[in-house]
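Hello forum,

I keep getting stuck at the same step: I have a sequence, I want structure tokens, and every attempt I make locally crashes halfway through. Rather than fight my setup again tonight, could one of you with a working pipeline run this one for me? It's a single chain of 198 residues.
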Amino acid sequence: MIIRRTSRPRRVLTAVAITTVLALAAAGCGGDGDGDRKSAASGGAHSGGNNGGGGGGSGGAGGRKPLAQVTGGKDGKLTLTVTTAVRDHAGFATLKGTIRNDGPSVAVLPGWASDEAELKDNGLSMAGATLVDEKARKRYLILRDTAGRCLCTRFTGGFQQGETTSWYAQFPAPPASTSTVDFQVADLPSASVDLSDK
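Reply #2:
Ran it on my machine without issues. Output:
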């Protein structure tokens, strides 16, 4: 009798547990997936590592007008676009955008690496990028983690002809009184960018 009384409640609890798991699994699979896309789009803002990414046009994200666009490089056919420049409450300024190679050959960017000894192992990356606050006469260098990895995109090689690649770079945030900064990397002209607050 005792065995019969304890086995029935166990079966009921097991059935309830299975039903709950199935209901949660169904709820997790539902929806339009916008949350996942939004998370992926904003990824890398506070972390190092490779974030080369590919694809995307040379225009702004989601059809928005880019904040800035400059052209330069060896053949004058490299276009850097800044699509977002956000200053957050944690004291970071994160810029994102794309690089497009419209030149006749593969573009290799050795000058994009930082001259700083601490960042020398980042190789082909946005580690050499800077923000300049002309109003305060201050220059901001790329942020890095304790291992010397830049909080920026590190690329895996040169850019093929016609290739567009995504990038991001993170800096200490200028003070709230600064609304515009100049972004520069390597031998490209500087791009004047308006910061937005998150």
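The beta strands are 68-72, 78-87, 92-101, 130-133, 138-141, 164-172, 180-184, 191-194, 196-197. If your local run keeps crashing, start a new thread with the error log.
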